[in-house]
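Hello,

Following up on my earlier ticket. Below are the two sequence lines again, exactly as submitted.
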Amino acid sequence: MLPRRGDKPEKIVRMHRRINAPEPMNDEFSIKFPEVAVENLLDAIPHGIAVVDRDCKIVAINQTLEVLTGVPLADALGVYVDFILRSNIARRGRTFREVLASGETQAIEGDIVSRDRRKIPMRFTIAPLRGHGAEPAGLVIVLDDLSEVVNPAGLGTDVDIAESIIGQSPKMREVFELIPLMAHTEASVLITGETGTGKDKIAEAIHKRSSRAAKPFIKINCGALPESLLESELFGYVKGAFTGAVKDKPGMFRLAQGGTLFLTEIGDMPLPLQVKLLSVLDDHEFFPLGGEKKIQVDVRIIAATHRPLKERVAEGLFREDLYYRLNVLHLHLPPLRERETDTRFLVNHFLRTMAERTGSSVKSFGDEALRLLMDYAFPGNIRELRNIVEYCVNICQSRQIEVDDLPKYLFTRLAPAVAPVAAPILPEQPPPPPRESGQDWQSIEKALIVETLTQTRGNRSKAAALLGWGRTTLWRKLKTHGLVSPAGARIENEEG
Amino acid sequence: MKILLTVQDNSIAPRFDQATEIMIAEHDGQRLTAEPRTIILPHRSAEELSDLIVKEGVECVICGGIEESFHKFFTWKKITVIDGIIGGHAEALQRCLAGELLPGTVLPSAQGKG
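Thanks for your patience. The regenerated structure is below:
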């Protein structure tokens, strides 16, 4: 009886042993099937099979193994078995030699790398082939594919990534393809992209896919802290290093030991600290503030910035050597306006999650509201899109979001003509460009305020209404952007 | 220009991620410019090996079986990968320099010939 699909490898080995057994089985077999070679018999078995001699060199392989390894039988003959199998169980041949020495069948779980570069989990059943002598004449190795029963490593994290980062556009697909590649190395990664493009999420995804996933992922914003505080946060300090240092502080580098340190807004890191960071990246060790003992660390660095680092290098604001040290692997995240198909997808995603979170009955966007959103440039990218959807979900009183539920500042940017006050006052004023790029949100917001105030001839109440803000918000933002002198501010404030 | 070979004894190591020894050969496009140097890796790690390959500025990797993600990574880094090679590393290097080594080649030395 020939082996059948689904037979356990051990059973196949037993059958194979019978086939290759000395008298009387061989005689009986060869009498009944005089034309059938052993290779033909092996081809009928739906498992990879290799037969090797006492030197562990290939004597026969079946078609299944030929397909798996991509090596035809003619090329495989006489080759040491593990060069053909590409398994992780051979231990330079010791595994096979042990079976030859003991004469006992072994079943070992491991994997192979196939012809199409897949790592396939396998159960290897290694059985001795009995000849006429006392010692085995060789081995038969049966490979049982365990792909369907073993959950491939990393599948869970793929799901996590899919849930946390959304995008179907070609540009985002390229990014998704790069994430596992970047996770596979220990090199530093530099993520660039405008504000709100998801640099943090990508950094976390790279960490989760890497071999450091079980270790900490620590994020620190280099632009949010003054130099001295950032230094102590990164490198820690020892007790007594300065007034108030009443106990040792480990610092982020030590807390991230074995894991990943994510330095966001690296472009804003003060120059003196850049020197220290470069030194740590090169030597994997540093002195904490006030410390006399070097601390050794094993931390992978992922850095991110929305600033054009190369330009900052040219301006002398960022060290060139650190730039090249961080820029080993570079990942640029496209702004939302370049991710054509993703906007609608993200709108629906945020609408669903916001409605669920707030218990709102809002189900969809009306056609006109959706069209306006699709035409908007989203200078604040995904963060801005999420905020707009959140605003709409909170404001909307019906099941469908209409134009009236959108933040008013969208109209100002999209078409000044719809602003009732602006149009008659300055009819010659050219419409603002529909899409802007290369600016950060702060400068865009400042330009927007100036533009709106120009339209309303400086009337802040009207400007605030057009922008969809309260007067106080507009006032605060005017101060933030330095758009008003203290003296003028008082007068304007009293007026409007 | 640098060629990196993953080696096991005198052969190309069967698997990239299981390699514990590598050989780096520098050449001028036709012949070697220096004696190839051998590096023993502290442990098996495809990630660390990939890192080393990038840092060393290697332009071509000759290896046995390699996973698709690493192959893609090297392609992305514009590093040529000649994988699935079975046989002696000296022969593989020689053929590579002559521009005659293709992925999946079983060299005569693997079968005790040549």
